[in-house]
């Protein structure tokens, strides 16, 4: 079985010592804003990029076991939903919007947040929790999703992400 | 869009080298494709490749990492073991299919 010298083979750059690293800071706790970080992290991992996710402030909800299954989406204040802002705070609107968003996401084959985190960890992604957020919410390791590697401080984060591309969501 | 020569015949490929004609592939060619990118195919690899081929037929597009897990039954972790670093692209290449375009 021989191949001629002019065979066109895709370059997967396996032998190139790729030290490309990306760190995504997830600071939002609404359902719609939980996804961008997860989707990009998953894409980066699929391209062999070392990927770290740092959950802070409202994003802490994404990795808190008591909340991660219950993230909500609200159109309140979000003019991009093209709804009249006056009706958005009405009872039931947030629930309905959350339900619709979940359906749209599922229809595209995108997993719910906990399952997505599982896939990211299985693909080699690193999950970190912010120490300050943990302290503010009085939460500890046991309260967090099992895939989280640790609760780290801002300085730890800066150390870990030396040379990394940073993304703040 | 071009042509390259492999396994003694002309194969249509895109600008990166992925196969563009579904029927130009066969399991012998898969071995060549795998060798091109440094992978030695085992039965486990072939099971995934066969799933991708079948799935492409019914879905009309290449399965993503997630679909290979949920519909193909091969965990994400296992995919990374079989096809290191860039599983989705490597699997597609060896299976003679286009790169997956789905996001998850």
CATH architecture of chain A: 3-Layer(aba) Sandwich
Question: Care to count the β-strands of chain A?
Answer: 5
- Structural category of chain B is mainly alpha
Estimated share of beta-strand residues of chain A: 15-25%
Number of helices of chain B: 5
Overall body shape of chain B: globular
User: What percentage of amino acids of chain B are in beta strands?
Assistant: 5-15%
CATH topology of chain A: Hypothetical Protein Ychn, Chain: A
- Structure summary, number of beta strands of chain B: 2
Chain oligomer state: heterodimer
> Briefly, what CATH class of chain A?
Alpha Beta
Task: Kindly list the characteristics that best describe this protein.
heterodimer, A: alpha/beta, Hypothetical Protein Ychn, Chain: A, B: 104 residues, two-stranded antiparallel ribbon, 5 helices, globular
How would you characterize this protein structure?
The complex is a heterodimer of chains A (169) and B (104). Chain A has 169 residues and is of the alpha/beta class. Chain A has one domain: DsrEFH-like (Hypothetical Protein Ychn, Chain: A). Chain A contains five helices and five strands, in the order E-H-E-H-H-E-H-E-H-E. In chain A, helix 1 (31-46) runs parallel beside helix 3. With 104 residues, chain B is mainly alpha-helical. Chain B has a single domain, classed as Orthogonal Bundle (Arc Repressor Mutant, subunit A), CATH 1.10.10. Helices cover 46% and strands 10% of the residues of chain B. In chain B, strands 1-2 form a two-stranded antiparallel sheet. Chain B is globular and about 35 Å long. The chains are: A alpha/beta (169), B mainly alpha (104). At the A-B interface, helix 1 and helix 3 of A face strand 1, helix 1, helix 3, helix 4 and helix 5 of B.
């Amino acid at each position: 079985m021989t191949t001629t010298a002019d065979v066109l083979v895709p370059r997967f750059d396996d032998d190139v010592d790729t030290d490309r690293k990306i760190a995504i800071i997830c600071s939002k706790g609404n359902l719609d804003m939980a996804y961008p970080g997860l989707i990009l992290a998953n894409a980066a991992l699929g391209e062999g990029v070392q990927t770290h996710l740092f959950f802070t402030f409202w994003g802490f909800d994404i990795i808190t076991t008591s909340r991660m299954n219950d993230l909500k989406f609200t159109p309140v204040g979000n003019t991009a939903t093209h709804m009249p802002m006056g009706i958005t705070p009405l009872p039931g609107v947030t629930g309905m919007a959350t339900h619709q968003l979940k359906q749209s996401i599922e229809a595209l084959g995108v997993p719910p947040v906990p399952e997505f985190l599982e896939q990211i960890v299985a693909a080699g992604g690193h999950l970190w929790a912010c120490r300050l957020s943990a302290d503010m919410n009085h939460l500890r390791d046991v309260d967090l999703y099992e895939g989280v590697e640790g609760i780290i401080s801002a300085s730890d984060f800066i150390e870990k992400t030396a040379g990394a591309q940073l993304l703040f969501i | 869009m071009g042509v390259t020569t492999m396994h003694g015949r002309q194969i249509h490929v895109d600008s990166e080298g992925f196969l563009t004609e579904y029927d130009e592939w066969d399991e012998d060619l898969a071995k060549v494709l795998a060798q091109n990118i440094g992978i030695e195919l085992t039965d486990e690899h072939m099971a995934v490749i066969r799933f991708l081929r079948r799935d492409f037929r019914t879905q009309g597009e290449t399965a993503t990492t997630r679909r290979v897990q949920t519909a193909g039954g091969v965990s994400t972790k296992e995919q990374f073991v079989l096809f290191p670093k860039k599983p989705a692209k490597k699997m597609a290449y060896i299976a003679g299919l286009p790169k997956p375009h789905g996001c998850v």
